[in-house]
Amino acid sequence: MTAISETPALSRHAWLLSDRPTSRAQARAGRAYAVWLRFSDNSLALAGLVIIVALILIAIFADVLAPHSPISGDLGNAHLLPPGTKGYLLGTDDQGRDILSRLIYGSRLTLTVVTLVAIIAAPLGLLVGTVAGYAGGWVDAVLMRITDIFLAFPKLVLALAFVAALGPGIQNAVIAIAITSWPPYARIARAETLGVRNSDYIAVVRLMGASPWRIVLRHVMPMCLSSLIVRVTLDMAGIILTAAGLGFLGLGAQPPMPEWGAMIASGRRFILDQWWVATMPGAAIFIVSLGFNLLGDGLRDALDPKEAGR
Amino acid sequence: MSPLLTVENLKVHYPTRTGGVDAVRGVTFTLGRERLAIVGESGSGKSQTGRAIMGLTPPQARISADRLEFSGIDLLKATPRQRRSLRGGRIAMVLQDPKYSLNPVMPIGRQIVETLVTHSPVGAAEAKRRALDMLAAVQIRDPERVYGLYPHEVSGGMGQRVMIAMMLIVGPELLIADEPTSALDVTVQLEVLDILDRLVRERGMGLIFVSHDLRLVSSFCDRVLVMYAGRIVEELASGDLSLARHPYTRGLIDCIPKIGENRHPLPVLDRRPEWAA
Amino acid sequence: MKPVLSVENLHVRYDDYRALDEVSVTVGQGESFGLVGESGSGKSTLLRAVAGLAPVREGTIHVDGQSLKGSRRPRSFYRKVQMVFQDPYGSLHPRQTVDRLLLEPLAIHDIANAEPRIRRALDEVGLGPSFRFRYPHQMSGGQRQRVAIARALIVEPEILLLDEPTSALDASVQAEVLNLLEQVRRERRLTFVMVSHDLGVVTHICERMVTMRHGKIVEALTSEELTAGAVKAAYTRELLAASKGFVRAN
Q: Which of A8, A23, B31, C153 has its CA 20 to 30 A from that of C204?
């Protein structure tokens, strides 16, 4: 009697990398998996990812992780204690507040700023860039001149102007930074669109009778996404620094919010004797910016069109 | 007379995430001062063979052979420096599309002179004279004018002739031509082949002609090697296409529509797995 | 034969470059018509002008009795006329699966029953269901070209414009695709307008043809005339001679 032989189930790896996907979901998952494999080959990129994931987790679990309150301090007993003091791992500031707890809660602010700016600026830049690139003619000229106007101002100065007009506060800081961040994305999207516009596969869709909007939204935009994602990720470091700069100038998050830039500003006075008050938030900004840069570089390599089979 | 090139069991392997690809799986042939064609479709390994001999495979490729000798020099054991001096000097290669193989930001004359000077140092005036002579030898009617042009300012056929001039100016003994006329119009193809024919004959060079066009090479070359899936499946003497024995070769000859024949539907290649064994 | 496509005195110019110079051509219904020439002859430009992809300066184009203005085309045109491009690597969107590629024309024209149509389209071009969710980079050149043909046929057009559909394919794959095109034409009673530089392919697929050079029509003739060598123009004779191949000097 012959034993019933089973074809061994494909390992998950093989199933994802199969060149005969049997459903849309499998095809898409396989593609994402291939990108992940390329990404994870790069240890620096993984380090960047770890940092960012840690940032996200810290922000989510801030309530659990922070040993003290970030906004009320023990002025009497805990004034300007150095790092390593019992109960205060990174020391305290001039208001007796635990710096570690402030950094942990501050991560929420950093993450909020970065996410909101990306959500506002990136789609805006993508839309402007693809429309300008595809339409050409006077539409292109007008949109690009508007973009140029925004690009002509130094980012921080322009953000300052907007915040000064709108009033200080973290929401207005986010809006101001977003307004100054979208032009490079428009440029990138336009450059990609110009490259894609004359390709045969776009001509084919035109020949099917697709409207220009359909072509831009469903066929051109997906081709711009890789470059855009990489650029946005690399920009995150700059956005954090701009937010910190605004906070430093007192125009971003208002006290007592534990925004990292504002923390540096208030710690400036004690930098010589109680260096930790300004340095710890500075180090946090440095680490997170580094994380985003490494992540962005890794994404650029992983999303490289040559390897994505373009 | 000892052969110009000896290739024995040449293998080219590309490691990939899913195991690896064997582009060339044991190719053996010798070449004297004659014209040899290597014919195959995409993926047959014909280009990889040519590039492996030239030493121009990508860095991740693993090349191995029992013997790979050019004019007595062991190519596998040669130092990178020796390889470099051979390349362009005694072994030259002409590629398919002059759009991609000529430097777009350098005038044509300068590129030819640069090739010459790299291998045989001569004075500037002498180099220019030889370059102009070479341009005339490839039937360019106005060598002085073309000398100063940029690659994008000349047609495809002329660009390919420039490429040939550039590669032959140093007087190599072996020329590897990788689809030299595939990117050209049909009437221009014949002109360029005429030039190649004459120069190879006059200089007594060995020629390896890599192509997908079996009919073309069988009239141009002395011998034809047919490759499939990294192996040589058949060897033919020129003009002997009708005597082809391997089913792949026969299939390849049969499936091309020719003027005057009325075969509907066209015979289609029935790929047998044993050909790739 | 009832003309289904006619082009009269067409002029196409890109800035200063005259791509088409007073070109007139008529194609009958159900015919297979060839445009033969070398690079720069304007053969592809003529096809693109019919499709609405080239800047037409002067001249008229009539498809199925309907007159077409410049590069603008009504929606109904795109259900009657479809095109297959030369480069199988460039004519499929790199980020879309075959399924999505085939769905697009159906979605644009609001054609119902997408599911069975997609399956039938793949069957018709000899690709099984295992190809349905592949991305272009997971397929060979011949397979991609089959997808391109399936996509062109899924809206059930009457006229198929073919821009060197097999030039970029290996010889053995070319034979398969040419057979497929013939079969499809027979079954659906299509009209073909095919651009090619290869006289063997053109005489195989087409009944009538024109040779073109530098944007002008050189000669109009039938495949039989070409095969028999009954050629009037010197350039056509040159093309015919060149197609015979290389003759060695010694």
A: C153
